[in-house]
């Protein structure tokens, strides 16, 4: 606010026994005090304010009061902000020193700080900070931590100028303050000249290019756990929207338009990660100042975190940063990150209606948006959800050498495989342009590549860091799946005599049982469903593209499209070009004029290339020679660097061409696959249908207990079909009623309890058992009144047996019915526990974690069950290895994914 008054003088007083103003020691450096100085002097958090006094004093009542009295009595400061000494420790006496000095208390300021702080952390109630007026100086106690003092200052910053004017009895200034508030409330924000006058725009970004590490540290500072009144974690609400005049929804699209893939993709990435907060998709926002402001306000009214894609680069339609900074007076913590793809990624915080909002502004290119969602947004949401592991990072062996690294650190889409106890990573293609969603097909991780300034190339077999974005592809088959230790009994109904014939029992392995189940009792069904609802389903038939992407030659950069003629005499002085037209994303290619020699068109990323143009020069390599009298239009520009033919151009069909295979059969549809299908207008897909499951407890209450445990396990397994848990069925008559009224031809029935009364309705029945492995399971077909159904059977109340049967047989069978390639995943694990801690049972539930480059079994506990371990027959070997400080290798079946890995099945 532009008041006609002198600068507000601020004093920062740090109170601590351990901090000093010297930067010679990181441990003792006063980071809180210096951060407050930066916020006020550099970022103008308090309007018209400047820090003129700064000091550090120890936690001593007399010293604190003496320093406060000196600054206030001698009118050295208008506002005194203390930081530190507000807690419960016997040394924390800042509030007492302040209360002994002030002549008026200002409880509203203290209450406002407390109210907002409690929204961020319940620990705020342990602060005793006070505020008041001494002489003509406003004194406010702030917490001692850098993060907390910053947050508290933001709460009261906007009210401080008015408070100072009232204390100093500056009535005219106070009236100006109220007029300014009324004007801001009733008028639209002023659009900056860099938006209204394109010729005034910056040629280079005003935001420093910070490292990924610095960006993540900034996010970490703002990842604050919040709690409900019941002391449960409060999950922030998220709103997502895409920006761009060129975007169309899949319903309203045509062959020559660009479809919105990002808003749906980002929302589905959050769903795939099991984020528990509410997520809203606001769709598409046009590149118009008022529209962007309006949609942001609507999003701020409904959500805590806002995620945008597009509009963050330097084109004339890139308004996001301008709107957030100018209209909402937000703080942009970073506006560029030294990475590829995703350099313009931006993180912003602001207060809207006295509530703090967090904004993630992602690039518009779909690959960049997807990569940055995984690298920035997901770790942040995991952190505010209370998860310990917020980045799914693993180490893997590179299968090939990589040359031609980029100057920026790159996150390349790659395939991570688990084979014989080791993780291997390989890049599927070198063509990984940020507009090309095809680079995600077949990928499940981001391979971290260093800058070319650090390494020239990377050799094969180098151990690399990867970040998981999908499940690990698993090709390892553990010996446990091939052990011939299961007793199989087969019962079949004889069609003539209607008797049940029992074959001679034989022994087999888990693999053979799964083969019998999948080959003999089930025929896969298919269905057509809307593409946007297909996440988690498996594609039944291949999909080819019916369109070219892009549908026209398009620019890769913000800059100028020119007709370049190489005459061998390039000279910067003679290469002046007249700006004759503008091409932005959404421009109709049919309306463009042909570019002649010496002419250029100002062009935005993704915009169609005008006829006659054969290269695009990025805006950083140009300068303005002349502009219109109102400075709105660039008339002529100079090109500072010799261009190259076809530079920064995407040709027609360079991303996707007509007839190109997009996805193969049995592809699991995730956020990136669905975004790819949406990009070419595919509204419906044929997928494997998920059968409905009916769980029927039969005969007694024991069976009901089994069904309850079974239902809970299947719910946790994220099976996409409907699961129905029926009431206890006490006789065959009731079961016949179920058959007639409930079951469809696509159902799977799971019977819990004694089934031998059903012999007359069995077409076939196979029973599998192994006492030492705690397995008791059956499957077959039921035939009743010309209706056939697949059935599975469990007849044990033992929790371990139910757990084993579900994960070794039922879930693999259900995965097969829905088209999954791998239906069971096994891995090699390491265990460093002595026999004293090991369970005696052969088949044991355990906790599986990824740490120090290995999968490890850390304990055998009921707290976290994530695998079934094949225990060795003897503990002697374990004891010997433990003495030699070696880890015992164990086979395991993965039953649940952890915070650090996903196993594909």
Characterise the protein shown here:
There is one protein chain. The chain is α/β, with parallel strands linked by helices. It has 19 helices and 46 strands. Strands 21, 22, 23, 36, 37, 38, 39, 40 and 41 form a nine-stranded mixed β-sheet that branches. Residues 1-5 and 179-187 have low confidence and may be disordered.
Mean pLDDT: 86
Secondary structural class: alpha/beta
Beta-strand portion reads 25-35%
Name the shape in a single word: globular
Report how far apart the termini are.
59 Å
β-strand number: 46
Uncertain parts: 1-5, 179-187
**Share of helix among residues?**
10-25%
Radius of gyration: 33 Å
Number of helices: 19
Biggest β-sheet, characterized?
A: 9 strands, mixed
């Amino acid at each position: 606010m532009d008041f006609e008054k002198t600068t507000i003088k601020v004093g920062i007083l740090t109170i601590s026994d351990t901090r000093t103003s010297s930067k010679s020691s990181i441990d003792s450096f006063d980071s809180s005090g210096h951060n407050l100085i930066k916020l006020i002097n550099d970022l103008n958090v308090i309007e018209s304010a400047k820090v003129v006094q700064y000091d550090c004093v120890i936690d001593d009542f007399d010293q604190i009061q003496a320093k406060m009295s000196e600054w206030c009595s001698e009118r050295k400061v208008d506002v005194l902000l203390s930081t530190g000494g507000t807690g419960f420790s016997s040394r924390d006496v800042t509030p007492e020193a302040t209360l002994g000095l002030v002549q008026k208390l200002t409880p509203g300021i203290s209450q406002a700080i407390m109210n907002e702080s409690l929204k961020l952390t319940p620990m705020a109630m342990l602060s005793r900070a006070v505020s008041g007026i001494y002489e003509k100086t406003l004194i406010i106690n702030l917490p001692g931590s850098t993060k907390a003092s910053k947050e508290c200052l933001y709460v009261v910053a906007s009210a401080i100028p008015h408070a100072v004017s009232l204390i100093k009895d500056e009535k005219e200034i106070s009236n100006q303050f109220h007029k300014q508030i009324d004007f801001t409330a009733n008028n639209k924000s002023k659009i900056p000249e860099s938006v209204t006058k394109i010729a005034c725009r910056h040629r280079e970004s005003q935001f420093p290019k910070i490292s990924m590490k610095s960006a993540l540290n900034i996010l970490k500072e703002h990842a604050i756990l919040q709690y409900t009144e019941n002391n449960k974690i409060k999950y922030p609400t998220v709103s997502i929207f895409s920006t761009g005049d060129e975007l169309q929804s899949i319903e309203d699209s045509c062959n020559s338009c660009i479809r919105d893939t990002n808003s749906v993709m980002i929302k589905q990435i959050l769903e795939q990660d099991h984020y528990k907060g509410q997520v809203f998709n606001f769709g598409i926002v046009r590149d118009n100042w008022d529209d962007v402001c309006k949609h942001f306000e609507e999003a701020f009214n409904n959500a805590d975190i806002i995620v945008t894609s597009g509009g963050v680069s330097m084109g004339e339609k890139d308004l996001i940063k301008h709107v957030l900074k100018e209209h909402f007076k937000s703080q942009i913590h970073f506006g560029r990150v030294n990475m590829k793809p995703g350099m313009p990624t931006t993180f912003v915080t602001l207060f809207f209606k006295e509530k703090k909002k967090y904004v993630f502004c992602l690039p518009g290119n779909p690959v960049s948006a997807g990569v940055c969602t995984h690298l920035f947004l997901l770790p942040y949401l995991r952190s505010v959800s209370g998860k310990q592991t917020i980045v799914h990072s693993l180490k893997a062996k590179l299968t090939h050498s990589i040359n031609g690294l980029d100057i920026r650190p790159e996150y390349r889409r790659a395939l991570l495989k688990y084979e014989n106890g080791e993780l291997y990573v390989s890049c599927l293609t070198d063509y990984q342009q940020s507009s090309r969603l095809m680079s995600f097909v077949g990928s499940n991780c981001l391979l971290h590549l260093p800058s070319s300034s650090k390494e020239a190339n990377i050799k094969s077999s180098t151990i690399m860091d990867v970040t998981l974005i999908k499940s690990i592809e698993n090709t390892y088959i553990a010996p446990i799946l091939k052990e011939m230790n299961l007793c199989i009994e087969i019962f079949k109904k004889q069609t003539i005599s209607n008797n049940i014939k029992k074959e001679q029992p034989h022994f087999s392995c888990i693999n053979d049982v799964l083969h019998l189940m999948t080959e003999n009792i089930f025929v896969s069904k298919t269905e057509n469903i809307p593409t946007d609802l297909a996440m988690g389903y498996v594609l039944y038939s291949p999909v080819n593209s019916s369109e070219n992407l892009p549908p026209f030659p398009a620019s890769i950069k913000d800059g100028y499209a020119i007709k370049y003629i190489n005459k061998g005499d390039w000279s910067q002085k003679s290469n002046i070009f007249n700006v004759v037209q503008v091409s932005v994303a959404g421009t109709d290619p049919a309306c463009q004029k042909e570019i002649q020699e010496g002419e250029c068109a100002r062009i935005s990323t993704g915009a169609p290339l005008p006829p006659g143009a054969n290269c695009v020069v990025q805006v950083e390599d140009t300068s303005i020679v002349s502009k219109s009298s109102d400075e709105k239009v660039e008339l002529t520009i100079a090109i500072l660097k010799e261009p190259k033919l076809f530079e920064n151009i995407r040709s027609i069909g360079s991303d996707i061409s007509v007839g190109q295979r997009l996805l193969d059969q049995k592809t699991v549809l995730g956020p990136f696959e669905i975004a790819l299908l949406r990009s070419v207008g595919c509204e419906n897909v044929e997928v494997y249908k998920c059968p409905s499951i009916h769980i029927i407890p039969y005969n007694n209450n024991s069976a009901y207990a089994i069904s309850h445990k079974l239902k809970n396990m299947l719910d946790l397994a994220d099976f996409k079909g409907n699961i129905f848990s029926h009431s206890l069925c006490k006789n065959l008559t009731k079961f016949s009623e179920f058959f007639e009224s409930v079951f469809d031809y696509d159902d799977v029935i799971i019977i819990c309890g004694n089934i031998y009364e059903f012999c007359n309705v069995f077409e076939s029945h196979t029973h599998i058992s192994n006492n030492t492995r705690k397995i008791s399971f059956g499957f077959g077909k039921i035939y009743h009144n010309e209706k056939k159904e697949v059935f599975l059977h469990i007849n044990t109340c033992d929790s371990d047996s139910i757990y084993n049967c579900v994960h070794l047989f039922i879930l693999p069978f259900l995965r097969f019915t829905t088209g999954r390639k791998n239906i069971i995943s096994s891995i090699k694990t390491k265990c460093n526990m002595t026999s004293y801690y090991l369970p005696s049972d052969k088949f044991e539930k355990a906790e599986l974690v990824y740490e120090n480059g290995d999968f490890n079994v850390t304990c055998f506990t009921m707290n976290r069950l994530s695998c079934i371990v094949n225990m060795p027959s003897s503990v002697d070997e374990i004891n010997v290895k433990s003495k030699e400080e070696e880890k015992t290798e164990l086979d395991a079946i993965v039953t649940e994914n952890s915070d650090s890995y996903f196993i594909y099945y």
